[in-house]
Amino acid sequence: MSLWKIKDELGNPSRPQKTMFLVSVYFDPLTNRTLQKFIGELAEKTGNNFMIENNVPPHMTFLQIQTRNAQKELEEAMTRLDGKLQKIPLVFTACGGEIPNVIYAKVKFSEELKAQIDLVYEEFSKIADIKINPHYLPEIFFPHVTLAKTLSREAQSDGLEYIQRNFSMFTGELNEAGLSCGKPPVHLVRFKVDS
């Protein structure tokens, strides 16, 4: 998949539009099923099917990047991380709704998780002509997994009340990583992480 270029009325390609890329991690099968179950229950409870309709898998985003011309460099950076990232335990501590229109599962910010985030950031921050969303900088990173989004205020309140009654702390494992873009997400590079 290449960056989308728009054309003017004469058919001449113009400057490529900025495209958003995500560097994300994915989970072991049991954790994935647990999170997917919460996504489905929240969609049913709130009537908001955004996550399901857009085929958004359970994931934790490490970086959100915009660029016009650096897709190849992003793919190369992600490929260089293959064999460097590690399979680490994760603790899903609670559900939250402090982000407007979103319900998420909170992940404990452990030293092991911080080391993985730092490794990813160091690799991608070397690339010119990219803009990293400041909310994903390592010093302010907030580890979470989105369970529902684009919710109305009322739906968020109802969904959060429901999920907090049905959520209990559980552990899982980070075991895959990838670079994607688009909605629904298209995986450009994806690999299993080392143990």
Task: Please give a quick description of this structure.
This protein is of the alpha+beta class and 195 residues long. It has five helices and eight strands, in the order βααβαββαββαββ. Strands 1, 2, 3, 4, 5, 6, 7 and 8 form an eight-stranded antiparallel β-sheet that branches.
Report on this structure.
- Strands 1, 2, 3, 4, 5, 6, 7 and 8 form an eight-stranded antiparallel β-sheet that branches.
- The two termini are 30 Å apart.
- Residues 1-14 have low confidence and may be disordered.
- The chain contains five helices and eight strands, in the order βααβαββαββαββ.
- A hairpin with a 4-residue loop joins strand 7 and strand 8.
- It is an alpha+beta fold and 195 residues long.
- The chain has helices at residues 29-46, 50-53, 71-81, 111-124, 153-166, and strands at residues 19-27, 60-67, 88-96, 103-107, 130-132, 144-148, 170-181, 186-192.
Write the layout of secondary structure elements.
Layout: E1 19-27, H1 29-46, H2 50-53, E2 60-67, H3 71-81, E3 88-96, E4 103-107, H4 111-124, E5 130-132, E6 144-148, H5 153-166, E7 170-181, E8 186-192
Antiparallel strand pairs: 1-2, 1-7, 2-5, 3-4, 3-7, 4-6, 7-8
Structure classification: alpha+beta
Oligomeric state: single chain
Low-confidence stretches: 1-14
* Helix count from the secondary structure assignment: 5
Outline: globular
Could you tell me how far the N terminus lies from the C terminus, measured between alpha carbons in angstroms? 30 Å
Pattern of helices and strands = EHHEHEEHEEHEE
Proportion of beta-strand residues: 25-35%
Mean pLDDT: 91
Main sheet specs = 8 strands, antiparallel
* Number of DSSP strand runs: 8
**Cα-based radius of gyration, to the nearest Å:** 18 Å
Helix content: 25-40%
